[in-house]
Amino acid sequence: MTYDIYFVRRRPGRTVVESIEDANEEMESADAWWMGDGDPEPVILTQQQRAAWVRIVRRAAEELGPVEVEEFLPGPTLCRNGPRGRLQLDYAGEDASIAIPYWYWGEEAISVAEDAYRLARLVEEESGLAGYDPQADQDTMTGDAGKAAARLGGVAQWAQENLT
Questions:
Q1: Alpha-carbon gap, residue 2 to 103, rounded angstroms
Q2: Residue pLDDT, tens place only, 107-147
Q3: Residue 83: C-alpha distances to residues 111, 135, 146 (Å)
Q4: How far is CA 124 from the centre of its chain?
Q5: How far apart are CA 5 and CA 85, in angstroms?
Q6: Is a pLDDT exceeding 80 seen at residue 155?
Q7: Which pLDDT does position 37 carry in this prediction?
Q8: Distance of CA 2 to the CA centre of its chain
Q9: Which residues contact 94 (CB under 8 A, 6 or more apart)?
Q10: Quick check: helix, strand or coil at residue 13?
Q11: Per-residue DSSP letters for 32-83?
Q12: Are 86 and 79 in contact (CB under 8 A)?
């Protein structure tokens, strides 16, 4: 289980949340392979999407520190493991997501949430996708990383105290 932030291309006349819901409905019908009905379709980024990905990786390394990049069938992935926490960005051109493990609370939650929002904003700037944090119920471009840190830290602390 991870703390997730989602990105989607905003559809005309739709909010970010509505655009995410629309994309999820479309993916449900296209993702029959999850149910054992075949292999996933590989994501093939357009030249524009690949250029955005390259810019995202460059800026993430500059702004967040060393990152690792791998290519998978569903698209490229960027991971940042460091003293300020672990983040993973999965990118598919027309959508993306950031995942943070529920390992952090207190000051650590603040650090990793600030970095997640920094990454989210650069993803938005470079790709044109719109980001939304459902746990904090806010857009990532204008949202408060402190609110995200409180949600992340609260769940992580509860899990540590009650599930270990």
A1: 9
A2: 999 999 999 999 999 999 999 999 999 999 999 999 999 99
A3: 9, 24, 19
A4: 11
A5: 16
A6: yes
A7: 57
A8: 10
A9: 8, 9, 23, 49, 129
A10: coil
A11: GGGGTSSPPPPP---HHHHHHHHHHHHHHHHHH---EEEEETTEEEEEEEET
A12: yes
Residues counted in the chain: 164
Between CA 50 and CA 94, with CA 78 as vertex, the angle to 5 degrees is 45
pLDDT tens digit string along 58-72? 999 999 999 999 999
Q: 3-state SS of the chain: helix, strand, coil percent to 5?
A: 45, 25, 30
CA angle 5, 147, 122 (to 5 degrees): 45
Contact (Cβ atoms closer than 8 angstroms) between residue 135 and residue 127: no
Could you give the CA distance from residue 122 to residue 12 in angstroms, rounded to a whole number? 22
Task: Please state the φ and ψ torsions of residue 120, each to the nearest 5 degrees.
Answer: -60, -45
Kindly state the tokens that stand for 64: 């967040």
